[in-house]
Amino acid sequence: MGIDMKLTVEKGRPESDEGRSRKEIVVYDYLDKLGIPYERADHAEAHTMEDCEEVSSALGAKVCKNLFLTNSKHSFYYLLMMPGNKPFKTAELSREIGCGHLSFAEAEEMERVLGCTPGSASVFGLMHDKEGLVELLVDRDLLKDEYLGAHPCHNIATLKVKTKDIFTKFIKATKHYKTEVTLRGQS
């Protein structure tokens, strides 16, 4: 299906904060403070990777799948960034990172730790993880692209950012690091 609307791509933040969520504005402020350039596509709420296909095409950048996972005690979290077309297999990732049991974190946990709601999780949420509760896991296939697409903590916009800016400037500023994983995504 995808998002049924004409998309335009703009450079940088919106001209006005009116009608924008505080979550979204905080991301623009953070990126601007770090001097990280970005392009933006505004759109209807995108809840699935299928919804993001049109956005990805308009931006000329792959919108990555972001999964917020937790250990069995819900005491530590993982944000997994992976290609949108690759299927996710919990057991495969658990083996790769040596974690016995992984599950999806609850919506309340995502809001508390990343400042995002389901459908809007992205690497930008790491700026809210002041306690260092989240480990960033990145499928190596994402690192091959010059640009990535991600929501600014609200799924009514998607930002196109240079991959190297995300994994150097942004990650460093949030005091996180990336752990690279290789997910086969096959049966």
From TrEMBL:
It holds the Pfam family tRNA_edit. Residues 1-20 are annotated as: Disordered. Residues 43-166 form the YbaK/aminoacyl-tRNA synthetase-associated domain. One of its GO terms (molecular function) is aminoacyl-tRNA deacylase activity. This is YbaK/aminoacyl-tRNA synthetase-associated domain-containing protein. InterPro entries: ProX/PRXD1, YbaK/aa-tRNA-synt-asso_dom_sf, YbaK/aa-tRNA-synth-assoc-dom. Residues 7-20 have a biased composition (Basic and acidic residues). Belongs to the PRORSD1 family. The lineage of its organism: Bacteria, Bacillati, Bacillota, Clostridia, Lachnospirales.
